[in-house]
Every structure is written in C-alpha cells, then in structure tokens.
Design goal:
Elements (H helix, E strand, L loop, with lengths): L2 H15 L12 H35 L16 H42 L6 E3 L2 E3 L1 H51 L1 H4 L4 H8 L1 H9 L2 H20 L1 H6 L4 H38 L8 H50 L4 H15 L8 H6 L2 H4 L8
Antiparallel strand pairs: 1-2
Helix pairs in contact: 2-10, 3-4, 3-8, 3-12, 4-7, 8-12, 10-11, 11-12
Length: 391
C-alpha cells in the first residue's frame, strides 16, 4: 500500500470515528472539504498551537532567568502592572469574572432555542405536545419557545450592560489612582519636573492602562468562554461542522497577531513623535524669540507624524480586511457542506441555521475584535517590559 493510499485510509478512519460515513459514493467535491477540515487544518492548528506555547514558555523562562529586575519607577505601584491591577482591584476582578461566567449558559440558550423553534415548533407535525405537564398546540408552543428566546436575549443584554458599566467603573477607578501616582512621582522628581511630557502622559497615554485593568482577567475569560461555548454547541450539532469552524483559525493566529505587533510598534513611534512635538512647542512658548526659528523643526514633526499615522491606517485596515475575508470563508463551508448534510439527512435544517447563527456570534467583535491578542496589544508596551517607562 502506497503512502497516498495509507493517507486516504487514515482520512476515512478519522471521518468514521466522528460518525460520518465517508466513502467512495460521496460526491467528489466533498472529498477535499473532508481532507481540509479533518486532517490538514487540525494538523496546522496543532503545529501553530505547539509553537505558540513553546515560544511563550521560552519567553517566560528568559524573563525568570533575569536575576535583578529594574526597580519600579513609580512609588506605590508594583514592578508588574498586572500585580498593581490585582493589588488595587482584586474584589472587583472576582465580581467581573462571576458576571462573565454567568453569561455563558445564557449564551448557549440563545443558540439552542432557535434550533428548537425551527425543528420542533415550525417543522414538526407532532402536535399537540406536552409542555410542563400540559398539552399545547403548535402556535402556543411556538409562542412559548419564542418567549423563552426573548427572555434569554434580554438576560444576556442585561448581563453585558452591567458588566460593561462595572468594567468602566473599575477602569476609571484604577486610572485615577494610577494618574495620582504618576503625578506624585513627577512632583517629587526634580529631573522629571523639567519635562513637558507629563501633560500628554496624564491626559492620553495612560488611558490604555485603565482598559487593561478592566480587561486583564475578564476579557480572556469571557472571550475564551464564549469561544468554548460556541464550539461546544457546534460540535454537538455535527462534529464535521464544528471542525469546519476551526479551519481558518491557524491562519488568523499566525498572520493577524504579527500585523498587530507592527501596528503596536508604529503606535509607540507615534507617541514618541507627539512627545517630541510637545517639547518643541513648550520650548517655543518659553522663549517667543525662537518661535520662527523652530518653525522648520515643528513642520518636520508634523510631517513625520502624518507619515506614521498613514502607515498605521494602512496596517489597521489591512488587518480588518484580512480578518473579514477569513471569517467569511467559514460560512461558505457551512452553506456548501452543511447544506449537503441537510439534503443527505445527516443534520436538521434547524441545526444548520443554529450553527450559522453561532458562527456569527463566534466571529462578531464583542467589545473588541476577534483576536484577543489585538485587544491586549494596546497594552503590550506596558506589560511586556514588566515595569513602567513614563519619563
């Protein structure tokens, strides 16, 4: 038996193990989909995941191997920004985690109820049916399921509202404390007091720190739990369609974070240019005689700032376009392969509709874009260095 024949036997075995009878009578156009979904994409995903875990462990080991860390430059804060957040908002973090976990079972209900409405209320001839010990007709059963769905979406909307408001409270509370520490450090440091960067630092540059304080634990738990809940729902409907939802994930994990890191580098460059511009303008305000002589340098700063901003826009919209294209590929698999499964009788129409709705929730940007890394990318300059560099 050749290597190609062994590969085909392996694919058939994997397909059979998950309950899909993949054989020679299956249409030819289905075969490449099965190979991509069940073998190639999972292999790439495992490779990418192994690489990312190994790379993360290596970075962690290198940081732990450093004997002496630089001292915190701001009194009242820990060396680690993460430690400072936990130190001043530990109780609030626990409450936000609980609110995030409460949202997950409600999310599953919002995915399951539409399938029940299509299959058991609209496309069913078994009426009347028993509901809570009483026989109900088709219209009544439809209204009951629709009412439960309305209640579920109301509950998840209330949960999101309360969580977002509370996150804003935590962010602003920590940000106020952080600004106070920075201000005191600036007042007590004779060298720093001569620098004009304190205004943009306190007004704008520390804003992402407040967002980090609110999202440091909630974001990965909520987004990770949402991902796990939706994938669980998809795999319950059909393992092949559940695996199809992960087909483009390796490409997103490899390509998008690299582009996002380039945006982060340019964003830090933009901050430095704004600081340089602030210094030049402050010098001109101190000595009005140098106003005209500083015109050339100021104009150069404006030009450089425009150039950096244009590069940021190009990369940001490239990330958005690539993510939208990759996200749209998965519904193509659902419509084609899932539609074939409906015609074949493998899954119900309601299950396919529910999977499509679940993928919409999966790919939608809930208070942030798909890649959680892109949300944390805004704070990576503060976190990755493990200390504060403000002046």
């Amino acid at each position: 038996m050749s290597a190609l024949d062994r590969y085909h036997v392996f694919v058939h075995s994997v397909s059979y193990a998950i309950g899909y009878d993949y054989h020679d009578a299956t249409p030819d156009w289905v075969h490449p989909f099965i190979h991509l979904i069940l073998v190639l994409a999972p292999a790439v995903l495992v490779s990418v995941g192994t690489y990312m875990i190994g790379r993360g462990l290596l970075i962690f080991w290198r940081r732990q191997s450093i004997v002496s860390l630089p001292p915190a430059s701001i009194r009242g804060l820990d060396i680690s920004l993460f430690g400072s957040v936990l130190r001043y908002s530990k109780k609030q973090q626990v409450l936000m985690i609980l609110l995030s976990l409460i949202a997950l079972p409600i999310l599953y209900l919002t995915l399951e109820l539409p399938k029940q409405i299509v299959n058991n209320a609209l496309d069913s001839k078994r009426f009347p049916v028993e509901f809570l010990g009483r026989d109900v007709d088709q219209v009544t059963f439809l209204m009951l399921l629709s009412g439960l769905y309305l209640l579920a979406i109301m509950l998840i909307g209330i949960n999101k509202y309360v969580l977002n408001v509370f996150k804003g409270y935590v962010a602003e509370r920590f940000l106020r404390r952080f600004r106070l520490f920075v201000y005191r450090q600036w007042r007590n440091d004779p060298v720093a007091r001569d620098k004009s960067e304190i205004v943009p630092i306190l007004a704008q540059e520390v804003e992402p720190v407040g967002g980090f304080a609110a999202d440091v634990l909630t974001l990965p738990i909520l987004q990770g739990g949402t991902l796990a809940t939706i994938l669980l729902f998809m795999f319950i409907q059909d393992p092949v369609l559940g695996a199809a939802a992960l087909t483009v994930l390796p490409v997103q994990l490899v390509l998008l974070p690299k582009l996002q890191r380039r945006v982060n580098v340019l964003s830090r460059t933009r901050i430095q240019e704004v600081r340089q511009l602030g210094r030049e303008l402050s010098d001109q305000l101190r000595d009005r005689q140098h106003g005209l002589s500083g015109l050339g340098a100021t104009n150069a700063s404006f030009r450089e700032l425009e150039h950096v901003r244009r590069r940021i826009f190009k990369l940001k919209f490239l990330i958005k376009a690539l993510n939208n294209f990759l996200t749209a590929l998965t519904p193509f698999l659902f419509y084609s392969l899932g539609g074939y499964f409906v015609i074949e009788g493998r899954i119900s129409l309601g299950a396919l509709i529910a999977v499509l709705a679940a993928h919409k929730e999966f790919s939608a940007p809930p208070e942030g874009a798909f890649p959680v890394l892109s949300d944390f990318g805004r704070y990576s300059d503060k976190v990755s260095r493990n200390h504060y560099v403000l002046f």
